[in-house]
Amino acid sequence: MLGITIDNKLTWTAHINTLYDRTLFLTSNFNRIIKTDWSVNKNLIKFWYNTVIEKALLYGANVWGGALNKYHVDRLHTIQRIFLLKFARGYRTTSTNVLNVLTGIPPLHIAAKAEFLKFQIWVRRSGDYNDIINNVQLDYNILIKNIPSDMKLVSLSEHLPDATYEVYTDGSKINEETGLDVCILKDNDNTQNFLFKLKPYNSVFQAELAAIQFAANWAVSENSKINLYTDSLSSILALQSASSRSNFVNKAKTDLFKAKNLVGLSWVKAHVGIQGNELADQQAKLATTTGEELLIPAPRSYLNRTLKQLILHEWCGYWNKYTSASGIRVRGFLDTVSPNFLIYNKILIYFLSGHGPFPFYLHRFKRVNSPLCTCGLVGDADHYVFDCSLTREFHLIKPTEASKKLWFKNLMSNKQAIGKMTNSFKISNDICDSLTRDSP
Ligand SMILES: [Zn+2]
What does the DSSP assignment read for 154-198? Predict the structure, then answer.
């Protein structure tokens, strides 16, 4: 085992190194798209990153993502940076940490770790990470190739003409509480209701399918024919699909298969006044608080959600430890990191990061001799946006320390203010040009 680990570690380093070339290749493609069409929507590019590029970069991360050392983390940042720079079009010196925050794309080493955890928890069923999922029992995938084909795809008749009972089922989620119910009707009389309460981590889909499953088992135990009505199309589709590997879904299928001569199953439109469906809807809401407790293992979506929160949490911690000047500056204007955040405008990136056409910045990177503006004051981003006499006609009103975050939030959607900032930075750019020329 030790030998394998050592071998793996060597391979991981080699693998991570190959990612560099892979990213260059993927983003060269990206360059062509951007060059030919500047109007490509930034959200679309981000979507492309999330669905294509990150997947390619995280290939095998279920193995290597768990044992990253400082070298690996740095290397992954260098790799992700290739993309982030092209995407954000900020100055080349803008730090990877800042670019992550401004594009809402989490650092690659954190995404890799989540990938590793997903594999350990879902596939390997390792108990080492139970605390991450709050010790919740998870659904699992089964091998479906061994299931006989007539049980893989449960096809029930829609309506049994000689059924004794009409049964309406429903699932519901209110205030994070999940419930389900099965309402039995005989000759239009509501003779019996079964209400169950699930856990907050259970999905509505699970509730709906569990309700159908319970109804089918009830028909078997009563040895009575029922016509079953549900407004959950996804449940019906799950029963009719051969592809679900979920143990929970397949157990429901098995039960439905056993009851197939006793159950007619059809879909009814919700909220159109069908009496039985309205009753089931109302009872399902009741079930979320008063139903009998029913334990169904959490769906995979629960794990995915939990890992997303973990990524956010780790990213937040990592970001707050980043104490460079630009990190501190950006934190002054932004509340926190978020995968939903995205800055479209490079002018805003210059302003936020402080890395842009400013003497103060260029001096820091030894491109000009002095950090001072031609007006004699320190020429940083704030100077041109709020203070410099040379940009006076484009000034914005400087926010107080306490209102900086709200101010920036509003600025992002204020085209007029961004236009002023753009003009200020055109002037500061000219100033920088003249300073660069003057430098020996
Ligand atoms: Zn000035």
Answer: ----S--TT-SEEEEEEEEEETTEEEEEEEEEETTEEEEEEEEE-
